[in-house]
């Protein structure tokens, strides 16, 4: 079966095709190592466009092609982590990652990261990436729960998570300091996908 260590579901989510409101074809799939340059270009643009991510653009610039290739390979070699790209007409416009917690006692927890290029916001790409990730967790043998922290000012992301019934558990006051010196609270959110 295609999909190797990831099994049937991984093969399925590697082949999800949609259409955007502007008529462009959208594919949600796991990247190949040969997608590294496109993924890196997307990552660098994302960190320039938004300060809702943990990475600054300066930190992102430390990644080169070899590092991005190694990054993609690490997901291909690790069946408990997931990395997906959203491709609109062949261009990588968004990414999603789920990383299993490193401790045995938290092996049911996966940390979410998600981002879409600004030009493509509000087209349902975040929703489709998250849907694919939830389906992957539904089938995963150990992971039951997705968790993350989101900037309290990130209304669009919080709306996306509310749409999927993620629960807000509280805030970490001044959990993040932007490069301009301003402080932002972090909202702790999670969702148990299966029991
Ligand atoms: C958060 C992000 C991934 C969402 O991706 P997206 O493709 O725009 O998401 P969708 O189009 O699927 O959904 C966005 C939702 O936010 C809503 N929305 C848009 N602008 C909004 C605003 N100002 N306030 C509240 N909700 C808003 C949309 O209406 C939509 O909800 P709906 O489906 O109920 O109408 C994207 O905005 C992004 O990459 N932001 C920068 C990086 C980031 O913040 N990552 C998350 C870190 S935790």
Topology of this protein?
Layout: H1 7-13, E1 16-19, E2 25-29, H2 36-49, H3 57-60, H4 65-76, E3 82-88, E4 91-100, E5 109-116, H5 125-139, E6 145-151, H6 155-163, E7 167-177, E8 183-192
Parallel strand pairs: 5-6
Antiparallel strand pairs: 1-2, 2-3, 3-4, 4-5, 6-8, 7-8
Bound molecules: coenzyme A.
Helix-strand topology string: HEEHHHEEEHEHEE
Spatial strand order of the main sheet: 1-2-3-4-5-6-8-7
Q: What is the alpha-carbon Rg in Å?
A: 16 Å
What structural category characterises the helix and strand content?
alpha+beta
Beta-strand share of residues: 25-35%
How many helical elements?
Answer: 6
CATH superfamily: Gcn5-related N-acetyltransferase (GNAT)
Fraction of residues in helices?
Answer: 25-40%
CATH secondary-structure class: Alpha Beta
According to CATH, the fold-level topology is Aminopeptidase
| Gross geometry | globular
What is bound: which ligands?
coenzyme A
**Uncertain stretches of 5 or more adjacent residues:** none
Number of strands: 8
Number of domains: 1
InterPro entries: Acyl_CoA_acyltransferase (IPR016181), GNAT_dom (IPR000182)
Domain N-acetyltransferase: 26-194
GO molecular function: acyltransferase activity, transferring groups other than amino-acyl groups
Protein name: Protein N-acetyltransferase, RimJ/RimL family
């Amino acid at each position: 079966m295609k999909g190797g260590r990831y099994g049937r579901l991984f093969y399925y989510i590697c082949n999800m095709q949609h259409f955007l409101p502007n008529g462009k074809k959208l594919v949600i799939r796991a990247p190949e190592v040969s997608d590294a340059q496109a993924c890196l270009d997307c990552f660098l643009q994302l960190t320039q466009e938004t300060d809702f991510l943990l990475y600054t653009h300066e930190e992102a610039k430390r990644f080169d092609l070899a590092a991005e290739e190694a990054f993609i390979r690490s997901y291909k070699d690790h069946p408990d982590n997931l990395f997906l790209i959203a491709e609109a007409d062949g261009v990588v416009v968004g990414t999603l990652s789920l990383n299993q917690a490193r401790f045995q006692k938290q092996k049911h927890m996966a940390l979410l990261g998600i981002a879409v290029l600004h030009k493509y916001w509000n087209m349902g790409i975040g929703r489709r990436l998250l849907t694919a990730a939830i389906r992957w967790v539904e089938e995963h043998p150990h992971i039951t729960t997705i968790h993350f922290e989101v900037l309290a000012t990130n209304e669009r992301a919080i709306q996306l998570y509310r749409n999927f019934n993620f629960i807000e558990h509280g805030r970490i006051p001044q959990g993040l300091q932007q490069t301009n010196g301003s402080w932002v609270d972090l909202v702790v959110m999670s969702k148990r996908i299966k029991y």
